[in-house]
Amino acid sequence: MRQQTKLVFSLGLALSGILLLIAPLSWVLWKESVVAEERNVEQVARLLGERTEQRIVAAISVLDRLNNQDWEACSPAHVEAMHNAAVVRPYIKSIGYYRAEERLCGAGFIQTSEVRPPRADRIYDSGVIAWWPGEDTSLAGLPLFMIRYGVHDVAMDPRQLLDAEPLEDRRAALWVEGLRLASEPANAELPEPQTLKPGLTIDRRAGRIVSRISLGTVFPIDIVVAEPLGQFWNRYLPTLSVAGIIGLLLLILWIVLVVRYSRSRFSLTGELRYALAKGQLRAEYQPIIDLETGRCIGGEALARWVRENGERIGPDVFIPVAEDAGFLPEITRAVLDATLRDVGALLKAQPDLSINLNLGPQDLDNKSFIPALKEGLDKAELPPSAIKLEITERSLINSDAVRSLIQMLRGQGHQVAIDDFGTGYSSLSYLESFAIDILKIDKSFVDAIEKEAVTSNVIGHVIEMAKSLELATVAEGVESLHQVEWLRERGVMYAQGYYFSRPLSARKFSRFVKRRSQKVPEPEPA
Ligand code: C2E
Ligand code: CA
Ligand code: CA
Predict the structure, then answer these.
(1) How far apart are CA 154 and CA 93, in angstroms?
(2) Which atom of ligand 1 is the closest one to the Cα of 420?
(3) Are 388 and 417 a contacting pair, CB within 8 Å?
(4) Cα-based torsion angle of the residue sequence 328, 329, 330, 334 in order, rounded to the nearest 10 degrees
(5) Ligand in closest contact with the CA of 316
């Protein structure tokens, strides 16, 4: 449960990490596309405004040029010049000539002598006179926008003052002096310029981006361009979805990595590996007592693991975990290193003392163990007799590898013990085929002594067998004086158990050894 909480917590952490990363990224991306699109709308509005203004300015300069020439009024040359100036500009429908308030002649697509608008709508200081398109300026149902400058005037199709080409799928309208002259498409619904601030407005209620541009070289003109937000979406959907998909894939990848990491980190196996790598594995030493003299002749090194949260995990739990995951040899190595570090000096000072190291099945195939053991002992300046090796009876099944390992170990001067003896059903003859030194009688048989159970007969046989094979015997799990006496009577040489001591830290073990170095006739309970 705690592991799960940890996993959920780290996942949450990882997720918030990714959100922290992705959120600003997508915000920037979004902002970028919005800003880019806004800029587009704004640019289109500006472009439209400039084109409208260019046309008006061009029309006035045409009039200016005509004014500055000495025409014989309404002569064929004069009419032709007006005609030519009009037809090259499609938005100019007609150019006309005035004397006083009378339009004498006109030329262009429309013979504007017919257009006789009454009072001008607006007279500017620049000398420009304007008639807004309306009934008075209509010709063939087309209201024209007329400007008179000097003695010439021009009639323009207001619709053609608005250049629709850069608009693409947006809508736009043109206002001159606050009067709407044209729109694209015709009758497009657009907000009045006076209701908008210059520049961009994001009108969420109407669901559109609107841009207003105002220019005023000749007349005050306003262009309003609008684009529905939906259209904006359509334009950016491909980009945004590609970015979204990439983001999603990255997110998935990240989650997979985090989950895998957390699993390995928070599974017992992963945590054990981590602890091993961090040197968090320790060893404790359980004294082994000579039953005849009561002296401590050494101890058994037992692996200890205290998790970062202080929880102690027993070797009966983590040894099988390491074995299943295939890194038991690393644990053996860590226990060996700990032993040499912790009690190396003690072993050197007391050459009759030895420490038993437990070997698991994987250690038996591990070619690097023996060299590592030799190297460690050499470095610590210890003889091979300082370290004894315990091999469980169960491992003997893997006979060939074990046989050669035992041979090598003994050849190097180590003693080898069979651990948990009695639990593996080895026969005497089978055991005989392994050249070993010590039998460690399993605790279950020692327990049976206390209960005076039938199995105590079995332990008697085991002891006899050991004697006949000339093996030293160590009784494991000795917890009472009664057991001690029983074992001593039967000629068992050594014992190990809570009666004497629990497994001890290196410091306590050293103290224990010093107390028990002299002959103690009757062992006292620890
Ligand atoms: P083991 O090799 O038979 O080690 C003896 C176990 O019996 C130890 O348990 C020890 O604390 C416990 N014990 C000793 N005296 C008594 C007693 O009087 N009463 C009771 N109830 N228990 C007693 P521990 O340390 O929990 O180790 C359990 C097993 O884990 C060991 O059994 C051994 O098989 C394995 N183990 C421990 N350290 C290592 C190691 O470094 N390498 C390998 N391969 N296995 C290890
Ligand atoms: Ca053991
Ligand atoms: Ca044992």
Answers:
(1) 8
(2) 3
(3) yes
(4) 100
(5) 1
Question: Is the model's pTM score more than 0.70?
Answer: no
Query: Among 460, 327, 445, which residue's Cα sits nearest to residue 393?
Result: 445
Whether 503 is in the pocket of ligand 1, judged by its Cβ within 6 Å, is yes
Instruction: Tell me how far the alpha carbon of residue 476 lies from the centroid of ligand 2, in angstroms.
Output: 9
Q: Ligand 1, atom 29: nearest CA belongs to which residue?
A: 316
C-alpha–C-alpha distance, residues 162 and 440, integer Å: 105
Q: Where are the beta strands (DSSP E) in 126-178?
A: 128-131, 138-139, 142-143, 145-149, 152-156, 171-176
Pocket lining: 314 vs ligand 1, CB cutoff 6 Å: yes
Q: What is the pLDDT of residues 267-319, one digit of tens each?
A: 888 889 999 999 999 999 999 999 999 999 999 999 999 988 888 999 999 99
* Rounded Cα gap, residues 246 and 250, in angstroms: 6
**CB atoms closer than 10 angstroms to residue 39:** 12
Calpha distance 285→343 (Å, rounded): 9
List the alpha helices (DSSP H) in 380-476. Answer: 399-411, 428-432, 443-450, 456-468
For 460-486, b/e burial (b = at least 16 CB within 10 A) is eebbebbeeeebbbbbbbbbbeebbeb
Residue 395's closest CA among 438, 362, 368?
A: 362
Task: Please state whether 413 falls in left (phi above 0), alpha (psi between -120 and 50) or beta.
Answer: left
Q: Quick one: angle between helices 328-349 and 315-325, nearest 10?
A: 130
Q: Which neighbouring-strand residues pair with 208?
A: 203, 228
Q: How far apart are CA 44 and CA 200, in angstroms?
A: 12
Identify the band that residue 111 occupies on the pLDDT scale cut at 50, 70 and 90.
low
The count of residues in the chain is 526
pLDDT at 412 over 80: yes
Nearest CA to ligand 1 atom 44: 360
Which ligand sits nearest to residue 356's alpha carbon?
2
Q: Token digits for 93?
A: 């429908």
